[in-house]
Amino acid sequence: MRAASHALVFHWQPRIAASCVALVFCALLNAGCWFGGNNATNGRTGATQKGDKQLAKFGASLDELPAGPISRPDPPPNDYVGSAACAKCHDEICQTFAKHPMGRSAAFTPGVADKEDFSAEKSQFHALGDLVFRVENSGDRIVHHEVKTLPGGRTVYDLSAPVSLAIGSGAQGRSYGINRDGLIFMSPISWYSRDGGYFELSPGYEHGKGRARFERRLRETCLNCHIGRLEPHPTQADRLAAPYVQEMAIGCERCHGPGKRHIDRQEIGTDSAPDDSIVNPARLSSRKREAVCNQCHLQGELLITRFGRRPSDFRPGMEYEEVFLAFVGGESFDERGRPTAVSQVEQMRSSACFRVSAGKMGCASCHNSHEKETRAQRVDFYRDRCLSCHSKGGCSLPAERQNEAPASGSCIHCHMPRLSASDVVHASQTDHRILRDPQLAAVHVQPLQSFDNWQLFDGAEGRIPAWELRRARGMAILHAISSSIPCSSSLRDAEELLLPLTKIPLPDAAMYAALGHACLRQERPSDAVSYLKEAVRLEPENELYLEWLARACFYLSQFEDAKEYIQRSLDLNPWHGRNFQLQAEVLASLGEREPALIAADKAISLDPGLSDLREQIQIRLSGDRH
């Protein structure tokens, strides 16, 4: 959900916040650096040397930077054919995969995949004080509502939006997307499958912090792992172009790569082995094999896409770090011992089973990605997987104890118990640490770690260029500081890591935007404007960068410039209440009364939390316009 030129996305799913809220938050807050002027630095300053020390632990230095400009990597092969083409020869596998949770990862709604209970009893709930959330199903249309009423029953507001995209297989639950001309927004209402099923607040809305209502964007990093193949907009970041989706659920080519060459080869009768026209993950090196799963199932503390890449650029057969750089910390458990969502990769890698396997163990050692075992098959299926390695030692308990309830002969019941996930409410997942004695799990739980303990996943720092490591490390420091994660580094440290990259030069709009935003955080708006203008020059249709530039100009009382940039941002995304608020304030500062009040009314209609904005704008207009 990001245009090809959008180089960097922060996929923030830390233990202290919900996953999808963070996609937007990190895009807004991760930044750092200054631009020229009195703050410019020439030569090797003490701060620059400190920036070098940030890389020293990774074995990189400033002297390893390239001498000339860096160009974007070539786009990966894009000759997809869709899973229906695979089914002509692999029908049985395609039929079983269609029943697998990955084969049901997303669907249009309303549709045949709907399993929710839309009865009056289930379709409405109260949350966040006096708010009522309601799901309205008219058969050919599903509309979600957020309603606020007064004690006497009078409606203060009724925000509503039609949902057309259901995300999730339904095994744990489903969340919902709102398609507004290719901009995908998340509904605050989700369906949870446990306890007979019920509607409740979506992850990240539980405590009412940073109320997003129907304005929270679902960006490419999120959508890419739930939808088989997106149709990205050619010039706009995080926007889809009609028909929006090429293949709804995860399909064959997500794990085997684009299939056209393979089909062409088969049609002309080429049958020599090995067949290099399609990827068989089992034949890949252990790192490349696991990268196929890790593209979606590795959470980490922070995920950064490399310069010139987007999440959908990953192809089976690539190294993970060719597209992604994931920072990881300690064990993926919060301070209360609950696992964070989608952290099974980190848990598995901490297990004794993985550590002694010399890279042989992986996701497919235990999981059949083509077919999901039934509930009746579950115990025998996973016990057979365990005994494939532990046939000699086996379980130390007497046979009669092994078969007692509730384990009833299940290895995973004892050694991989179900635990509640900490950053997705109403959900649980399997503990992939495979502990010998699960009763000791609490002893191994570590509190939320400092950024100072973060490192790149699987030693990737030794396999990427020093300048790319510098970029990732600087961005990660900015993320940590912006997200209030304990960190001994400063914004200035991050600046010193990123500053040399502007001299190469590196045509990285996301980096310039991040630097500009950091300047705002350090109350250096003039420097921020310089960097943000460069970001907008590189990506003139990026609504976020235009918004940040408008805010920087407004801070400097450059109201005409702020008016232009916020209008350009709203032209791209007219569903952002806070941006209409900014527009109202800019127009009021210019003395443009009626346009300012119209913008204020629009802001309130999108975000009722701004209900006093019109009065504030009128006060401003009646007094000193500045």
Explain what the structure shows.
It is a single chain. With 626 residues, this protein is an alpha+beta fold. Among the domains are: 83-267, no CATH class; 360-446, no CATH class; 543-626, Tetratricopeptide repeat domain (Serine Threonine Protein Phosphatase 5, Tetratricopeptide repeat). The strands form five sheets. Strands 2, 7, 8, 9, 10 and 11 form a six-stranded antiparallel β-sheet that branches. Strands 1-14-15-18 form a four-stranded antiparallel β-sheet. Strands 3-4-5-6 form a four-stranded antiparallel β-sheet, with no helix packed on it. A hairpin with a 3-residue loop joins strand 3 and strand 4 (131-137). Helix 17 (509-521) runs parallel beside helix 19. The chain is globular and about 85 Å long. The chain starts with 9 loop residues before the first strand and ends with a helix.
In angstroms, what is the radius of gyration?
26 Å
* Strand element count: 18
What structural class do the secondary elements suggest?
Answer: alpha+beta
Question: Average pLDDT, to the nearest integer?
Answer: 85
Please report the distance between the alpha carbons of the first and last residues: 39 Å
Helix content: 25-40%
Instruction: Let me know the largest β-sheet.
Output: 6 strands, antiparallel
Could you tell me the strand content as a percent range? 5-15%
